[in-house]
Amino acid sequence: MPARIDILAVGSLSSHIRPAFDHYLRLLAGGVSVREVREVALRGRSEAEVLREEARRLMPALGAGGVVVALDIGGREYDSPALAAKLQEWFARGGVTFVIGGSLGLGDEIAQRADESLSLSKLTLPHQLARVVLAEQLFRALKIVRGEKYHH
Questions:
Q1: What number of CA atoms fall less than 13 Å from residue 5's CA on the CB side?
Q2: What does the H/E/C string look like for the chain?
Q3: Starting at the edge strand that comes first in sequence, how are the strands of the sheet with 116-118 ordered?
Q4: ∠124-26-14 over CA atoms, to 5°?
Q5: CA-CA distance, 38 to 36, in Å (whole number)?
Q6: What is the pLDDT of residues 83-111, one digit of tens each?
Q7: 27-66: per-residue pLDDT in tens?
Q8: CA–CA distance from 40 to each of 51, 80, 96, 126, 149 (Å)?
Q9: Domain 5-145 class, CATH top level
Q10: Other C-beta atoms lying within 10 Å of the C-beta of residue 150
Q11: Strand partners, 96
């Protein structure tokens, strides 16, 4: 793998979704690190409070160096070859950290800290499913980077 790829996510995956995500992590052959921060329960809190607290948990994990890409429905969309090209650009800048919010998305603090914003689809994806889709798209993009066929 040419450079560092990190996935930083709010919450852990359910037992029903984890096998699909783990499948793509195995295909990525250890080239992706995954870090999770605990999701904040909405009980008795406003959505803004939850997003602020989750952002507070995410910020220290972002570190320095590399590109921070926030996953957001309003972000830029890429086809597979364009995402592969973007990955190469991000590798040249020291690697990439993809940030996936919880059920409420990402707080403004993370959006402001992010260097770029990526949308996996115009459709709203549950945050756990977005993690699986991201892993699959990273697998596909890295095949393109290596000059391999990326579809059957």
A1: 20
A2: CCCCEEEEEECCCCCCCHHHHHHHHHHCCCCEEEEEECCCCCCCCCHHHHHHHHHHHHHHHHCCCCEEEEEEEEEECCCHHHHHHHHHHHHHCCCEEEEECECCECCHHHHHHCCEEECCCCCCCCHHHHHHHHHHHHHHHHHHHCCCCCCC
A3: 32-37, 5-10, 96-100, 67-76, 116-118
A4: 45
A5: 7
A6: 999 999 999 999 999 999 999 999 999 99
A7: 998 789 999 999 999 999 999 999 999 999 999 999 777 9
A8: 8, 33, 25, 16, 41
A9: alpha beta
A10: 16
A11: 5, 67
Confidence (pLDDT) at 1: 46
**Global confidence as pTM:** 0.94
Q: Which two tokens stand for residue 55?
A: 């952002």
117 φ, ψ (degrees, to nearest 5): -125, 135
33 has which bridge partners?
6
Separation between Cα atoms, residue 125 and residue 123, nearest integer Å: 6
Tokens in use for 151? 């579809």
What does the pLDDT look like over 52-63, one tens digit per residue?
Answer: 999 999 999 997
CB 95 within 8 A of CB 66: yes
